[in-house]
Design goal:
The chain is an alpha/beta fold. The chain has 8 helices and 10 strands. The strands form 2 sheets. Strands 1-2-3-4-7-8-9-10 form an 8-stranded parallel barrel, surrounded by 6 helices. It has a two-stranded antiparallel sheet with strand order 5-6. The relative contact order is 0.13.
């Protein structure tokens, strides 16, 4: 399978002051997909503009025609499967079947306490995700769902007419631990990783490649356990969080080298951040556009 190149557009611009134009430009440049983060606020952007993922994707769906759209990633931190399912069905309809749901267990950032609750432990996050994802799967594939769970329940929840994409829109499951990888193997149409976070500060690109290889091997074992061929899943690398940091966007050659090494690991989609000046995602926009239009083609 050939490597696909996608981008993630952080929801920091007002729609009529650059937001709409960015999503349309992503389509013009030929990206496979454009995603956005599904957070209430995020890291260094916390005290600046930050818009909601679902309304942003709805607007992007109306402003584009071919570009796939999605979240990287949604989590249970401030969502419930019943209301999320209704929003996703609506998004899938408005976009004409172009939505991918990136989804993971969530983290301990600002979203974890924004609703006034204590941050969940890693085990609590895994427990909740293990209940959230199967229920969401049912809600997107069945007309009516009743479920009484430990953390999430549904009582005769109606999700008619369901997704345009059948049997439902694809899940891209972000996971590195054993429980998350089992969920990716069972429910995912794609697997998402950002690499090994322990290597970000002190690791080397070579160590990162080794860590990603090990993650992919664990995904293969998880797929085998549920009787699934790992080749059925797309493997997605969200860049910017490995020791390479922003170096792959410094030149077309740097990107081709980076993408080639990760394609050889089995990755089928590379996601790069749309440049944001004066941030961790600052990059030369002209180089970025050349990468979008020339980079993948140079991989051969």
């Amino acid at each position: 399978m050939s490597l696909r190149l996608s981008t993630v557009i952080l929801p920091v611009d007002r729609w009529h002051q650059g937001g709409r134009a960015t999503w349309q430009r992503a389509e013009e440049l030929g990206f496979h997909a454009a995603y956005t983060y599904d957070h209430l606020s995020w890291r260094s952007f916390r005290d600046g503009p930050w818009f909601g993922a679902v309304p942003t994707l709805t607007a992007a769906a109306a402003a584009t025609e071919r570009l796939r759209l999605g979240t990287l990633v949604t989590s249970p931190n401030f969502r419930h499967p019943v209301t999320l399912a209704k929003e996703l069905i609506s998004l899938d309809d408005i976009s004409g079947g172009r939505i991918t749901l990136g989804i993971g267990a969530g983290g301990s950032g600002f979203d974890a306490t924004a609703l006034g609750q204590e941050a969940w432990t890693p085990k609590e996050r895994a427990d909740r995700f293990g209940e959230f994802l199967p229920l969401l799967d049912r809600l997107l594939t069945e007309d009516a769902v009743t479920h009484q769970g430990t953390h999430y329940s549904a009582h005769e929840a109606r999700t008619i007419p369901g997704c345009v994409q059948r049997p439902r829109l694809p899940f891209a499951v972000a996971a590195t631990g054993p429980r998350g990888l089992r969920l990716a193997a069972r429910y995912g149409q794609a697997w998402v990783t950002t690499g090994d976070p322990k290597l970000y500060e002190e690791g080397t690109p070579e160590q990162s490649v080794d860590a990603l290889r090990m993650q992919a091997e664990k995904l293969g074992k998880a797929c085998a356990e549920v009787g699934r061929n790992v080749a059925e899943l797309d493997q997605v690398l969200l860049t910017g969080f490995t020791p390479d940091r922003g170096r792959p966007l410094e030149s077309v050659d740097a990107f081709v080298d980076f993408a080639g090494r990760h394609r050889d690991l089995g990755f089928t989609e590379i996601v790069i951040h749309w440049p944001i000046p004066d941030s961790d995602f600052a990059a030369d926009e002209k180089v970025f556009e050349r990468i979008a239009t020339e980079g993948v083609a140079q991989l051969g």
